[in-house]
Amino acid sequence: PAVRIFMDEKMEASVRKRFGLELELAEANEQLKLVMIATVGLNRAASAQLAEISIMLVTENWIPIESLSELQLIDHLTADSRSFTKTLRFNVKERPIASALLTDTTPVCAMYIRPEAANEAYGQILEDMEKETGMATWLWDPEDGQWPPILNKA
């Protein structure tokens, strides 16, 4: 059955502040969907009231994405029938997180999209991670336009 869930103005402001980008991207792109997980409680009037929420942007194939650049990459990998694992951030901010791990290459290839806010140390961190993990590294800077060649399937 359909149940209406209400949120107060404070929660609405919080949702718009925290998930504004996701909401805007989903509104602007019909192939994107929003997945929501929430805690809901009943108030004294027995109305369902939103208490906590998290929103995740996903593709039409239900693959999570964080940006339009990542959507381009994931769409390309999917259309090319590549085998990959989509990585998730889980609040990791101090180290680069690969957008995808190509699992049909030898070795596995970690695919990174350079964030706008990346500094000069970003490339060095990726080199260190490549040595540490033994994975190949692919890096695309969306500001440069076309991405570098993607490794062929093994």
List keywords for this structure.
154 residues; alpha/beta; three-stranded mixed beta sheet; 7 strands
Number of helices: 3
Number of DSSP-assigned strands:
7
Mean pLDDT: 91
Question: What composes the largest sheet?
Answer: 4 strands, mixed
What is the helix/strand order?
Answer: EHEEHEEEHE
Strand order of the largest sheet: 4-5-6-7
CA-based gyration radius: 19 Å
What structural class do the secondary elements suggest?
A: alpha/beta
What fraction of residues sit in β-strands? 25-35%
Low-confidence stretches: none
Secondary structure: helix percent: 25-40%
Q: Oligomeric form of this entry? A: single chain
Cα-to-Cα separation, first versus last residue: 49 Å
Shape: elongated
Compose a concise summary of this entry:
The protein is α/β, with parallel strands linked by helices. The protein is built from three helices and seven strands; from the N terminus they run βαββαβββαβ.
Can you describe what's shown?
There is one protein chain. This protein has about 150 residues and is α/β, with parallel strands linked by helices. The chain is built from three helices and seven strands, in the order βαββαβββαβ. A four-stranded mixed sheet has the order 4-5-6-7, with helices on both faces. The chain has a three-stranded mixed sheet with strand order 1-3-2. The radius of gyration is 19 Å and the shape is elongated. About 15% of the residues are buried. The mean pLDDT is about 90.
Describe the secondary-structure layout.
Layout: E1 5-6, H1 9-28, E2 33-42, E3 48-58, H2 68-79, E4 84-86, E5 100-102, E6 109-113, H3 121-133, E7 136-140
